[in-house]
Amino acid sequence: MRKEIRFSGSGGQGVILASVILGTAAALYENKHAVQSQSYGPEARGGASKADVIISDEPVKYPKARNIDFMLCLTQKAADKYLPDLKEGGLVLIDSDYVDVPETDKYKVVKLPISSTTYDKQGKLIALNIVSLSAFVEVTKLVSEDSLEKAVLQAAPKGTEDFNMEAVKIGRELAKSLK
Amino acid sequence: MRKEIRFSGSGGQGVILASVILGTAAALYENKHAVQSQSYGPEARGGASKADVIISDEPVKYPKARNIDFMLCLTQKAADKYLPDLKEGGLVLIDSDYVDVPETDKYKVVKLPISSTTYDKQGKLIALNIVSLSAFVEVTKLVSEDSLEKAVLQAAPKGTEDFNMEAVKIGRELAKSLK
Fold it and tell me: Among B16, B20, B47, B22, which residue's Cα sits nearest to residue B141?
């Protein structure tokens, strides 16, 4: 089992932290191996931001993501840039408040109004990355709810634990509302 | 030019964020290519934490660090675990408040009292990773002072800019005091 995951959005939306949390959830709480990475070139300036995670039962020998199984896109620019890297039969979760993706047979598109829901429930978008991550985990089942919560708590600065747990619940319920 | 850098310490010391900032400083403000990554296995639980950056003039083809040029060690456990990966002729910066490393001809050891200096100047250790990063950059000259400051500002949450710029200055002056 080797799964390649890419989180994408704009700089400042916290996609790196979200992918670090996913990697630690898999490695620390589910006995998997994980590599989390971001590569930047000069073209990264002002553009779309991405962060990759590879989760595997075995130590990860080749740490570069090339054939993405699961993707998250929080901005249209990120979707336009990275969606071609999603493999056939893959799945992409998009924030339908900001992203639209044409229907296709190549991969599955899951649309959730992540930003507006986060804003409605929390009055700000600080934890958008955690809401997105939690919805993503609910859709993909890459790690358990329990492992995700432990990893979010571990990453949360002191005093923000409740706020971040609330964000986890918002994302989970949003994804469950699909079914 | 390809340089491999490893930041190591304990979980919660912010070595991942420090290495993300170094990678963005090189890629966004110095026209280099950079890959930042962390790999975790089940053995990561409770142990030493590491984060790698590769900086290159060319796109980074092989993103795994194997032959570290420059290392930062904030804890003894991290030094014991990762120092064997430092290449001959490399350089390690250690927090001499917590880490000791035997003298050797194999690589250069730079010792700075990072924790105690940070605590003396700021009354807390929240920005220890930024102080360490700044001292590291002053010692290694991997990126310019200006690029570092821009990348730190970009990563700093709103309202913490001054505090983080202060941390940059503390680290830089500490490293300069060596000379």
Answer: B22
The structure tokens 């999603």 sit at A86
DSSP 8-class letter at A88: E
Neighbours of A62 (CB within 10 A): 12
Structure ipTM: 0.87
Domains: count for chain A: 1
SS3 B54: strand
Quick check: helix, strand or coil at residue A49? strand
* A169 CB-near residues (< 8 Å, 6+ apart): A134
Q: Give the closest-approach CA distance of B17 to chain A in angstroms.
A: 9
Report yes or no: B110 at the A interface, CB cutoff 8 Å: no
Residue A29 sits in which domain range? Answer: 2-176
Between the alpha carbon of residue A36 and those of residues A7, A21, A171, B50, B176, the distances in Å are 11, 9, 22, 12, 34
Q: B111 pairs with which residues across the strands? A: B94
Q: pTM for the whole thing?
A: 0.90
Please tell me the distance from the alpha carbon of residue B103 to that of residue B119, in angstroms, as a whole number: 27
- Residue A38 and residue B37: Cβ atoms within 8 Å? yes
H or E stretch including B20? Answer: helix B15-29
- Structural contact between residues B17 and B45, judged by C-beta atoms closer than 8 angstroms: no
A64–B63 CB contact, under 8 Å: yes
Cα separation of B140 and B90, whole Å? 10
Category of A31 on φ-ψ map: left (φ > 0), alpha (ψ -120 to 50) or beta = left
Do A23 and B38 make contact, defined as CB atoms within 8 angstroms?
yes
Is A60 in CB contact (< 8 Å) with chain B? yes
Tally Cβ neighbours within 10 Å of residue B95. Answer: 27
pLDDT digit string (tens) for A58-109?
998 888 888 999 999 999 999 999 999 999 999 999 999 999 999 899 999 9
- Here the CATH number for the domain that contains residue A70 is 3.40.920.10
Cα gap B117→B155, rounded to integer Å: 23
